[in-house]
Amino acid sequence: MLVLGIESSCDETAAAVIEFGIKHDDGDGCRVRSNIIASQIETHRKYGGVVPELASREHLEKIGGVVQEALRSAGVRVAQIDGISVTQGPGLVGSLLVGINYAKAMAFAARKPFVGVNHIEGHVYSVTFEFPPPQYPALALIVSGGHTNLFLITEPEKYKLVGRTRDDAAGEAFDKVSKLIGLGYPGGPVVDKLAQQGDKRAIIFPLAEIKDPDHRLDFSFSGLKTAVLRHVRDHNITPATDPDNASQEIRDLCASFQNAVVRALVRSLRKAVELHRPKTIILAGGVACNIELRSSVRHLAEEAGIPACIPSPIYTTDNAAMIAAAGYPKLLRGECAPWDMSADVSIRLQNVDLEPANSKRKVRYRI
Ligand code: KG4
Ligand code: ZN
């Protein structure tokens, strides 16, 4: 089955063609026929973050070319595609609508089925291309610019949200701290790079502790961001003007801040592993590019004797291959979205209720 994936939830316009159901000795596999990503980073960099109006306009300019390029480099015509999978949400409404309407128009013109998928579920499916199918239950830590969620996946497509951020997403914390110390947007890659030449023990930032026993796997990063701000003020740290010439003070700050984020993420993941005894650990989302996070999660998984699926950076940041993979099971079942399907910026992924250990209450989160 050939699936065309389309992603436009934030600042990447992406399209991919994936061939599913390729027979191998050890089961079905897939092949990435194309994976095209047009990044808008340069547009938003000067504003220090994503500007929604500019993002949707640029998606509109690029979507046609990106989809055509995905088909061309896959060597397939629209008529050969079996279905289209597009991100329905969460994300920026104007940006999402560009991808959704393009997908609908193509589906209508070419008489193909189309399905809408949850962007976060897309990140979970980013493990499809480089790893054997996950064993269940699996634990997935999805860390990006907009989300920090820990899911227990009891079986394919069954998600329990067991941890989430109470405030900022981990990637958002990287972006805000980076801006504060003059390193610009996006913050993750540059902080990661400078942290490699810094001393992570230079500043000991405290980790937020969630006291509520029902939510002890949750995260909080806004206090850490404030602690960095206070440190910068108290020590009169001059923001960098050029990351390549950043002072040792800035490099140490990057290393210490990054280490605090990684410790917080891994601490919850460790607790979740002890509590839920998963058979696979998945790490995905843009922050999963972070070198220290990747090695800490790998280390935790090795200690626990569980395989870790941590995709290459091309699949952990926003891409359409993961959207095609998340849509494939739906298309295989013969699902097709109605023509009035629209963007859903607050779409939920949780579809298994959480039953807190010490309470009869059922908790539903919005993510
Ligand atoms: O998944 P993604 O591409 O888009 C969203 O869905 O948000 O994630 C983007 C986020 C940004 O906040 C960016 O700063 C962060 O991922 N990021 C990183 C690294 N590379 C990207 N954070 C930490 N270390 C990195 N190497
Ligand atoms: Zn994302």
H and E order: EEEHHEHEHEEEHHHHEHEHH
Helix fraction by DSSP (H/I, runs of at least 4): 25-40%
Number of E-state strands: 10
Radius of gyration: 21 Å
Low-confidence stretches: 356-367
Main sheet characteristics: 5 strands, mixed
Spatial order of strands in the largest sheet: 3-2-1-4-5
Query: Can you identify the CATH superfamily of the largest domain?
Result: ATPase, nucleotide binding domain
CATH topology of the largest domain: Nucleotidyltransferase, domain 5
* CATH class group of the largest domain: Alpha Beta
Q: Architecture of the largest domain, CATH level 2?
A: 2-Layer Sandwich
Number of helices: 11
In the residues, how many domains can be counted?
Answer: 2
Q: Give the bound compounds.
A: 5'-O-[(R)-(carboxyoxy)(hydroxy)phosphoryl]adenosine, zinc ion
How are the SSEs placed, and which strands pair?
Layout: E1 2-7, E2 12-24, E3 27-39, H1 41-45, H2 52-74, E4 83-89, H3 93-110, E5 114-118, H4 119-124, E6 138-143, E7 148-155, E8 158-164, H5 170-180, H6 187-195, H7 222-234, H8 248-276, E9 280-284, H9 291-304, E10 308-309, H10 313-316, H11 321-332
Helix pairs in contact: 2-3, 5-6, 5-7, 6-8, 8-9
The structure holds 5'-O-[(R)-(carboxyoxy)(hydroxy)phosphoryl]adenosine and zinc ion (ZN).
Residues 119, 123, 144, 285, 318 line the site of zinc ion.
